[in-house]
Every structure is written in C-alpha cells, then in structure tokens.
Predict the 3D structure of the following.
Amino acid sequence: MPTEFVSPDHFIRYAESAPSDSTVPIVEVHPSRKDGLPVPRFAGKTVHSLFDPREEARRFVDVSCQRAGVRPGETVATVGNGFGYVAEALLEKGFRPVAFEPCRELFGAMAKARDVREFLRSVELYLIDDPADLHRSGRHREALGEIKAFLPLPYVSWLCPEFSAKLAKKAAGVRASRNAFYRVSVVSPLAGGSWEIARYAANGLLGNGFPVDFIDVSGFGGVNDALQKFHAGSDPSFFSSGQAAFAMWCSDRIMERVNRFDPGIVLVLAQAPLSPVHVREMRDAGRRVVYWFVEDYHLFRYWENDAANYDAFFPIQKGAFLRDLSMSGQRNAHCLPLAADETVFHPRALSGKDKERFGSPLSFMGAGYYNRRRFFNLLASRPFKIWGTGWNKREPLFRHVQEEGRRVDSFDTAKIYNGTEVNINLHSSTSHEGVNPFGDFVNPRTFEIAACSAFQLVDSRQLLPELFTLEDEVTCFTGRDDFLDKVDYYLSHPEERAEMAARAMARVLREHTYRDRMREIVEVIHEICPPEAGRRLPTVEEMSREGAGPEWKKILAEFPADRPLSFDALLADVQEKRAGQRITRKEAMVLLLGKLRHGAI
Amino acid sequence: MAQSENILLLNLTRMGDLVQTTPLSVGLSKAYPKASIVLAVVKEFLTAASLVEGVDEVVALDYNALKRIALTNGSSPLSMVSEAEELLSPLLSRKYKLAINLTHSPTSSILMYLLDAKDKRGLQMTPNGLRSIRHPWMLLFHNFAHNKQITPFNLVDIYAMGGDVPNHRERIPLTIRVPEEAEAWAEKFFRDSLQGDGPVVAIQAGASDAHKMWHPVSFIRACRILRDAAGARFLFIGGQQERELAEKIHALVDAPGSLVAAGKTDLPQLCALLRRADLMITNDTGPMHLAAAVGTRVISFALGPVFYSNTGPYGEGHIVFQPSVSCAPCSFAVRCVNPECKNMVTPEAVASVALRRLRNEPLFPGCLDDGPEFAGCEVFLSGWGEDGLMDYLPLLSRPRAFRFTLERAYRRIWGETLVRRQDPPGGDIPVPSRSDRIFGPLAALEKLASAGRGAAREILRRSGTPGKHLDMFRSRLSGIQAASGKIRELGMAIPEVNGLCQMFAYEEENMKAADLAGAAGENVAIFGNLLRRTRSLAYLLAEEDGKAQGGSG
C-alpha cells in the first residue's frame, strides 16, 4: 500500500475499511484502569500502559525529548502512533508532533475507538508500509525535513523491527539533500521513448533549481540506421563492430561534455551510449553516476552487465527485480516510477479546429505493439482514433489510425488527451493478446493523461495502487469484458469521468511530476552515497560571511540569501543589468570570465 | 618615475602583430622619454614581445590560466573572480598615462574598462556595458575588420597613428632587438652548414591558419625554378610544428646547399638567420614581419582572409601577391571549403618576380608585363605613399580594375581626413546624378546624410528653448534615427559604400554628449562627415572615370 497522509476529513475511510491481513495480529481494545481510555493490544502485548496511558506518554516524552536535546516549538516525530497518546503529550508540552504509523490496522482501531478528528487537526499522521517509499509524497518530504528527533514507540520494534532505523536514515537523506545544489548532467539515449524522459528529467531538475546540462545525443541517432543500411547483406559482424565503434565515439563525446560541465551527479537514461569505462572514470572523478532504467527488465536484459557499474540504479519495477539487481552486484537499487511533465501535459481548451482534429470519444495514443493491435479490434465498431507509429497498414484496424500513423510530438499528444472523452491506456506487450496479467510498472501515459485532467481507462498493473487510488483517481480493466463495460459506462457518465480525472490530476501534481522524481533521486543519492563534500556551491549568505567586501555584498544582496549562487547565475544577472547602471569592477571581472567561459577571447 | 608615467600597449594577438607594434612603441618612447612603455601580451608570445623595440616592460597575461578559471564549475564565483584578479594584477594594479588597445577581442575591451588610465584608446567597454572605440585611427582599425579592401592602410601605420605617432613624417621602420649571441649563432650556421654560393632564399611554407597557406606544391615548383635559373639555395624555416612540411618540401626541391631550419631555432636565432637571407618567400606570417624588421626583402602571399595592404610586409621594396577573385579577401568569419585563391597565384609568376629581385633588376610600379602567369593575380610593390604612409602599388602594367580605383579613392579620403586633417577633395560637390552601380547608392547616402544633418541642425538651433519645441524635437529625432538606420542598411547591402557607413555607425556609437544641444552638435558633425566623405568618394571615382574615358578616347 502507498504511504498516505491522513487528513481530518478522510480518517473515517480508514475506520470503515481497515483491511484484514492475516500476517498482522488482530487489535484488541481494552479500557485503561485509571480513566477508561482505550488501549490497543496485539497478540497479548499492549501498545500503551493499561493503567494510565496519558501519564505514561508524558513521562516518555519528558525522558526522550531531554535525551534528544529538542526544545518546545520544534518538530518531533513519533515512530508509531498507537492510539496517539504520545503525540498528544508532545502537543501538551509545546512540541509540534508528527506521527508515522506502520500499522494501518492499529490506526483503523484507533479511529473506531476514539474521536480522532480533533487529534488529526493537531498532529500530522502518516500511514507508511515501507520508509523507502517516503519520497513519493511532497508532504512527507516536508515533514521529514523539519523533524528534529524521532521517538520510536516500543511496540514498533517488535512489530516492524527495521522500521525505525529505515525511517531515520530516510529522514537524514531528505534533510541532507534539502539545500543541496548539485550540477547535474542528464545523458539521453540516441532515440526511443526514454529520450523524452531524459528531456523531462532535465526539466524536472531545472524545476528544482539544479544547474543542468542535458547531453542530448539524439542528433547522432541516424548513424545506427545508416550503418545498418550500409552493411545490409554483409556479415552482421561488420554492423556490430561499426555499432560498437560508434557507441564508443558517442561515449567520448558525452565524456567531453561531462568534463566540461563538471557535474556532481550524472543521470544516465536507459540505452544512453555511455561506456562502462567512462562511467568508472566519472565515478573516479568523484561524481555520482546513477542510472534510470525506464525499461521492462524482462524484455531488456542489458542491466545484468551494466547495473553494477553505477552508484545507484533506479528501475521502474520492484519485487524480484530489486533482488536480481542485488545479486548482480547493485545494492543501491530504488524503484523510481515514471511521472508527468506538468509543463507539457496540463488541461487545455482546444480550438474548434484542434477539437475536430484531435478530439474523439475514444482514443489511444501510442505505438502499435502486438497486444494493442489485437485488443483494440474490440473497438473496431466504435468511434475510436488511434495515434502513433508502428501500426500495420495491412490490418483492418489501420482505418482508425490517424494521419497515416505519423510520429506525434508531446504537444499534440497533450491535445489528444485533452480532446478525448475516454483515453484508452493499454500497457504494451509483445506476448499477450491484450492485458498482461503480470504487468507491474506504470507507463508515462498514465501520469500524462492524468496531468491533463483527462479521463483514462488503464489496464490493471501491480504497481498502480501505490501511485493512484484505484476507482477513485483512476479506473482499471483486467480483460475484454470489463473493458467494454467500462468504456460504455464512462462514455455515458461524463460527470463521473470529470471528477475522477480531476482527482487524478491533483495526485499527479502532488506526487508524480518529474520534479518530484528528481528530488527523490537526489534524496536517495544522499541516503546511500552522498557526492563528495565541497561540490555544493556556497549559499549567498555563506559567501557574504566569508569576507566578501562591500562591493560583493551589494551584488550578493540581489540574490536570495539561502540559495547557492552559481557563476552562471551571477553572469546572467550582470548581463541583464539595465542600461544606464554602472558596471562595477567585480561585475566587469564576471563579464570577462563569462566571455572566456563561452569561448570568446 | 611616477607610476602614472606608464604607457600601456595592450596587444593580445599573435607574433606578427607584436612585431608590427614597433613603430608605435619606438615613436611613443621618443615622444615620452620619461614614460615607461609597457606591452601586455598573452604569455605564449612573451619571447616575441621581448624583441619589440621601444618597449621597457612586457606584461605576460596567462590567458590559458584565465580560461581555466572561467571554466571552473562548482566553485564560488567570488573565489573565481578573486583568482582572476590575482592573475591580472600585474596589468591592473598600476596606473597609466595612456592605454591603447591594439586588439579587437571582447575580453580586451573589458580589460580596458578595468584599467586605471587617464587616456584610453581603441576598443573598450563603457561603464554601462556598451562598446566604445576611442580615437579616429582606432575606428579605422575596427572598420578594416569589416571592410578590408576599402581600408587600404597597413596595420603598422594604424597602430602608430592610433598612438599619435606621426609616422607619415617619421617613417619609423619595424625594428626588433636581436641579441648578439643569436647573431653569432646565425653567422656560424651560415658559414658551417650552408654549402655553395648561390643566393639564399628563406621559405616559410607554413602559417597559423591553413587558409593563409600557399600550396606546398606551388612552393616546390617556384623553388625549383629558382634553383635552376639562379642556383638558389633555400633555408626552410618555421616552428617545430612546421618542420615536417619543411622537410618534405626540402626533399622535393632537392636544391644543393639547402637546409631545414624549421623547429631548430629560437625566435632571436630565426631573426638572425633571416637577416642573412637574400630574399624571403612566405605566407603572411609572423616570420614575414620579422624578415621585414631585419631588412630582408620579402615576397608574400595575401591568401584567404589576408589583404595585401592591411598586413603586407612593412618597408620599401617588398612584393605581395594578391589573387584577383571577387571573394578575396574572405571574411574572418568564413571558413572557405574551396580556396581557389591559392591556385590563382602561380609558381611561375612568383619565380619570375623573385628572379628579378635576386638579380637586382629594378622593380617599380607598372614595370612587369602582363602575362598568362599573372592572369589570376595582382602584384604589388611596397613603398611610401603620397600621404607619407606605407602604400602598395601595382607592378603589373595593366588597366586598373574598379575595385582598385575604389580602394585608392578610400585611401585618399582617409588620408586627407586622418593624416592631413582636412576635408577630403570634392567634399562639397554634390554626387553626380548617374545611375551606375556606385553613384546610385552614393546619391542615396548623400540624401540620407543631408537629411540627418538637417534634422540635427534644426534641433541644435532650437535647443536653447527646448520646452517650446517638443513636437519638433520628437519629429526631427525620429528623422535622425530613420536616416541612421537606413545608412546602416545601405552599408550592409552595398559593400562598396560600407566603408563610409560603418565609420558613420562607429562615430555615432561613440557620441559622448549627454545633453540635447551637445548630442545635436555631434550629430551635425557625424552626418556632415558622412556627407563630405560620400561626395568626395563620388568626386574621386568620377575623376578617375573621366581619366579612363579620356585615356581611351
């Protein structure tokens, strides 16, 4: 289950639908002997004092806070919430409490036994299954960053032995990366879907305020095709040796760009032509080199050799893959789902002309994979538009394919999503007739349609419930019958469509943008292998403190004190100085270095 | 000596340009005997700078280190600036009476801004970040970057005149300091290593830019002709990186008594060797200027972006081959992929002129009969012009092409204006109403200049009572702006008049006045300058045209 923030208005859902899981002990509730307050009990162990849970909580807070050296007014987290007595004691003593509860059943029992509405107005409560997923929510991140001390409740240590340690580590990573300001190089592949993701990732990093060098090698993409044509009919070894030489050449170019930009972090996207030798060189130079494997690991197996070369590896799948990665030597693997670039995918009203061109009751936008070419025949008699490449012209379905199956760019894609009543989203498969019953990762389309506040019917995926609330934010189909039922139902229920789509968009904007993902990458890097000290640019305040003279102080006053200031940002500011303003000597030196930096003499 | 008695020459270019600075440095040291002449150069050319006569101190700027700082990532900008300041402190920490920028580059303009100098000349950044070029000769220096072929002055004279060294009267030659030990080394080298007794011709076949290089095969053919006709011996010179080329040419020329010196000498030794050569055949390079400075006659090639009169060898009696092709000289911004200009200078033509020089046969303008070997080029002889500055006149006896006539007319206009400081001839005679390719644009330019001047004059007349004439001011100012814009556009469209238009643009950029009357006064002068120069150009071209028609009639 995903990590969730429990708001005062929605707690009732937990009280009513506490899931039953045989691995979790059943919660019994007993009245305390002194005041009859409800006290939960698991398999013979009580979570709070059966005599006076409030007094016990006060004493616990006194001792723990003193030991942790925190002062009233500061944020303190309870690891485990139980029935909330410790959090309430923190409140009484002037602390700002945050609670992380690993056991949903316990909270369900609390919601039934106590009126928690008031409690939730004063205490931020999060239900977490795995601290590794804490990144997912912007709200968690904020909370984690603020926390000055963690007070683990005793029951957590026997219920989830590693929970406290994992949570503390995660919080340390989040805190440490909070004001981090690394230069990041993003290395694109030559072509393919992951190229777009590389671009979005670069945008996401920029959105977080990181200086980014987007190393776009797509311009060289035609060479592989040319090689193939050139060696057509020859021994395949000619092509493969040419391809290897070309890949090495690309890798050299990438290396030049990386050395020139001197990043602290290099984010490599799937299929980027970067040789392991260069990855090693970058790491030797103190850079953190991480890989976002935005592929299906079953289909593309090159990770078996490559994954261990990187400081950290971010797949879009988890479960067995994380175990396999560990066995291949990559211990720092962390599932990082795809996302949406909200600057490209957002709600928009289409012009009459665009509505006619891109609008439709039913649409699918994507490549003509085998399962789609088979499954979409179900819609053959319906008003259905197909967009994208790879559709077979000889198949009857092709009459639904728009504009001769041209490649559709992301801006037109957003128009298609916006202009469609029901967007069909079937994840690709080369070996199924329709829905892949074992499909796990969630494709970018899911996030992008949602980011447009457009409605979608998406095939069931194992990791989807971690990202969206099913049947509340998105609705799924598992096979032919429920697919057609839902198509017909939602076509005739526009208001339900609109409400669900709006909730999905809110979720994306809250948790699933590339800005979130990139922040998550940096946090994970901080947690597992922080870049070498000294790469962080000093903040403006630090620069001012470190003996900057009056001329510098005046220049620096123009910038936010708590943000780092790069040379490029300073140069841009000096260059934009309004005509008529006198350029100071320091500014002139900045201009001089700027000229040299950009190749002038 | 007071610190403010320093005079700075900022020359962040290559070896050749440094050698070309010598009349300026010598002239300044004579004019300001108490001042210390400081030459600032990039570190790589420190040795070349130390040869420059008249210089008291050389400041070597480590531009590579500066670039490394500029390319640093992840450091505090404050520390980057601080490191750069430290590197530049030998230049920036002192005061100067006068600083002259002999460089076109953007960084040099910022350095000029940073300098503490009473009088700054040449390209410099203004306090609000704009471009400014001070001194009329420095305007011409920048004009020739855009309009080489209609700015027919030698860089040496432009440098000198930009420092107010009256080289049209003093004719200070290029001079360099060659240490005694280098001379002794060269003496021994000539005595011990060069066999035979034929004339010694130094060959510089390499160049810093491949576009400036005559074909090696052409060098070989020319050398073979000289070998066979005059028993010439060759000294193949150059730097270490040119050694392989020199050795190949040497092997293929196969001239007895010849040697490869490329890569085997330091700069003073090279100068001493060149002094002992009878002739040098060379691309437009630093060693070409060294040869001119030590008094050795030169035959050079103005190929690619090089124009014979701008950077040709300075001094009397040098010869420059210039291809006669409409695209020559090409722009500095162009990377030509089909440099046909190299084929237009034939080895036979070069060898025939070289033989005359080696045989001490007289060479004077028009002395060479036009023959097929000269079909693709012009040949110029250097000497002092009527205006007192270095000039190059055609050796071939052939009718003048229009472009040469145009070039001469420009030379006359700038000569009268900047050397004699008087109005150019025909400056008050309206442009004749003719519709051929040059008079039409000149008439348009005359009209624009006249309109601009008229509007500026009107503002100037009423500037004492500005409150009463706001509408008129607005209308006239927009008239001035429109005329100025059209003048610039005309220059971009018609290269033949761009020399005038570009100069107008520079003068306009450099206006100093901050008040209405002052600005109007400057505008009157600038438009007036353009008007007189335009009329003068038309007058001189018409005069030349008349001569030609009279001649043919």
